[in-house]
Amino acid sequence: MKKHIPNAITCANLFSGCIGIVFAFKGDLQTAAYFVILSGIFDFFDGMVARLLNVKSAIGKDLDSLADMVSFGFLPGIIMFQLLKISDYTSEYLPYLAFFITVFSALRLAKFNNDERQTEDFIGLNTPMNTLFICSLPFIAKDYPMVIGSSILLIAITAITSFLLVSEIKIFSLKFNNLSWAKNRFKFIFLIISALLIAILQFAAIPFVLVIYIVLSIFHFKSFVSSETSPHLQ
């Protein structure tokens, strides 16, 4: 039975993503965002449970990517599509550009499954973090409608996030092999700052969290390279 537990959690991720899609199609983007968070929780725990139970499998890996494609690929594309529909766009075809997020999410997930460099960390922005960022936009729109209502800005966000998904930027994962401050200080700093920002700004904090995530990842890997090369320089 235990070998099916991680896959059941992955299926819960998929199920939650499907419900989020229904709300997104209805235009209830904020409720859709809450289901994205639920999917993210399931996505975090399926891998953890698989490692704890030592029941990792090729089927589980493929199922995880298929579930992520729905929850963190198709769903954010729909949210951006809906945002573009209510923006100041001038062409009826412009909102369809939102699905570049879906296309590049698929490319990112396929790349991840076949890239041996990404066994511990990520190369390119991971789809759950990108989806959380996209889902934060409807909440920001409540306070800053003129900003998020700009089709130019939304298309720019679509282009930038699509690039980040398949970029060669190294991004640390939040898996901890140990609790050493020296080896994980940038991860700890990220979690502390993110928790504070989210407590204060809630969903509006996510864009700042994304920027901090990328910046701290750059410093993390620079410090890692320095620590690896320093013994040879002495």
Question: How would you briefly describe this protein structure?
Answer:
By secondary structure, the chain is mainly α. Helices cover 75% and strands 2% of the residues. Strands 1-2 form a two-stranded antiparallel sheet.
- Arithmetic mean pLDDT: 88
CATH superfamily of the largest domain: CDP-alcohol phosphotransferase transmembrane (TM) domain
Q: Structural class given helices, strands, pairing?
A: mainly alpha
| Total domains | 2
Radius of gyration: 18 Å
Q: Helix and strand succession?
A: HHHHEHHHEHH
CATH-defined fold name of the largest domain: Four Helix Bundle (Hemerythrin (Met), subunit A)
- The fraction of residues assigned to DSSP E strands is under 5%
User: Tally of extended strands?
Assistant: 2
Strand order of the largest sheet: 1-2
Count, helices: 9
Can you summarize the main beta sheet?
2 strands, antiparallel
Topology:
Layout: H1 5-26, H2 29-53, H3 58-85, H4 100-114, E1 122-123, H5 127-143, H6 145-148, H7 151-166, E2 170-171, H8 181-201, H9 206-233
Antiparallel strand pairs: 1-2
Helix pairs in contact: 1-2, 1-3, 2-3, 2-5, 3-4, 3-5, 4-7, 8-9
